[in-house]
Amino acid sequence: MRKILDIALNDLKIVLKDPGAWFGMFGIPIVMAWVLGIGLGGSGNGPTRVRVDVIDSDNSELSMLFMQNLREANSTLTLCPMDNNAEDFCNLGDDPVLTEERSVNRLSNNAALALIQIPAGFEEKLTSSQPVAIIYRSNENASAPSYILQAVQAVTQRMNGAVVASSVGVNIATETGVLDTADLAAQTEFQGAVYDRALELWETNPFSVDYQVSQSAGQNQPNSTQVGFGQSFPGMATMFVLFFVLLGAVNLTRERKNWTLQRLVTMPLSRGQLLGGKILAYFLMGILQYTAIFAVGRIAGLNLGNDLFALAVVMVAFTLCATALSFVVSTFVKTEMQAATMLNLLGLTLAPLGGAWWPLDIVPEFMKVIGHISPIAWAMDAFKVLLFENGTLSSVLLPVGVLLALAVVFFGVAVARFKVE
Fold first, then answer.
1. pLDDT tier at 378 (50, 70, 90 boundaries)?
2. Percent of the chain residues topping a pLDDT of 90
3. Proportion of the chain in helix, strand, coil states, percent, rounded to 5
4. Do 242 and 351 contact (CB within 8 A), yes or no?
5. Tens of pLDDT along 213-240?
6. Residue 322 belongs to what domain range?
7. Domain check: are 303 and 169 in the same one?
8. Domain count, the chain
9. Same domain assignment for residues 63 and 120
10. Taking Cα atoms as reference points, which of 292, 348, 350, 298 lies closest to residue 321?
11. Is the domain of 204 the same as that of 237?
């Protein structure tokens, strides 16, 4: 064991005495994790005002009521040009009038995130129970949040309910003889009264859900910082651990070329001690890298969950798997160039495929299955459970088991194929 440790410490000294290695191990992944985390929501600040263009071709009381209800449904929405201010938040310039063509161009340029078009005759058709459609458009990318459409749908549902109530009320009144079937004016007045009363009842929310969250669960709900950094720090740490540990394949190839391995064989070392020392060196580098990156993430506001031991077990399991993969690669390549090419190919394929760059929740089901070819996917599954679902060691036994099983297979292949020459 002493000889294994001596070989490992010697390799660590050689690598860590290079300032560039420190920057590659810690500087680049931490910066990338921080920037990506802010982009994914880690800044902790959500949007406070959102531009939504509205073209009201009806200019009626009901169209104004629709927009008022829309503002109440989501207070972050700024309806342009109606809600524009002296600071010109809507970016309309000297021309406050919005045409359909201009609004579509604003969508494509992200000047507004959605367009709502209220057609002419909206109030007349609505009060007479005729079908009428409000047109909703978005720029169909990630900057068009779904909560805009949800607010529109909520208001539409409310007004539809009032229309149905008024129509049913008129039908019942005429069938029971309360209203004369020939008196259209009385029916229209009655229908309007029922509609207004239905809207009033919507405002009072006569039926509601008392949604309660227990204190312990509520305290652990992920905020925007956790959402952003909870993806970026584990993802970048796992990707760069894989990259750096895979450098072991390059270094082993270089040592063969320089006859360093051959000279070590002439010393009183067994093949197992030689392999053990090399494996231990890169395993320790990976653990050191993981620890430093997660420590910075914690300083940045990342909640590491309730089971730090389980978190450490996942790190150990993945680092073992990556180290074993590195030694497998070293047995198949002949030159440093081949090893470097294989490092880039594996790193840049397994990282995005396994969810290091983005969560696998956003990809189609078949891609989730394919993504789990990558060991990174199993590590990210475990990190997700621990960081977002307050999981424990028992919650991550499957991904940890898969990673350890892969490590055993990789180590078996590497030992069987390893040659000093």
1. very high
2. 14
3. 65, 5, 30
4. yes
5. 334 434 444 555 677 788 888 989 898 8
6. 2-43+223-417
7. no
8. 2
9. yes
10. 350
11. no
Q: Are 249 and 334 in contact (CB under 8 A)?
A: no
- The answer to whether residues 170 and 57 belong to one domain is yes
The CA-to-CA distance between both ends of the chain, in Å, stands at 24
| SS3 assignment, position 61 | helix
**Rounded to whole angstroms, what are the CA distances from 136 to 58, 123, 144?**
16, 18, 12
Do 138 and 272 sit in the same domain of this protein? no
Distance CA 263, CA 268 (A): 11
The pLDDT value recorded for residue 43 is 47
DSSP assignment string, 302-368: ----S-HHHHHHHHHHHHHHHHHHHHHHHTT--SHHHHHHHHHHHHHHHHHHTTSSS-GGGS-HHHH
- Cα torsion for 379, 384, 389, 392, to the nearest 10°? 20
d(CA 402, CA 259): 36
Q: Looking at 215, 231, 263, which one is the last position of a domain? A: 215
23/56 same-domain check: no
Contact 60, 122 (CB under 8 A): yes
Residue 89 sits in the same domain as residue 58: yes
Helix (H, G, I), strand (E, B) or coil at 118: strand
CA 414, CA 397: separation in Å to the nearest integer? 25
Domain boundary among 145, 180, 215: 215
Supply 89's token pair: 């938040």
Enter the tokens of residue 150.
Answer: 């949800």
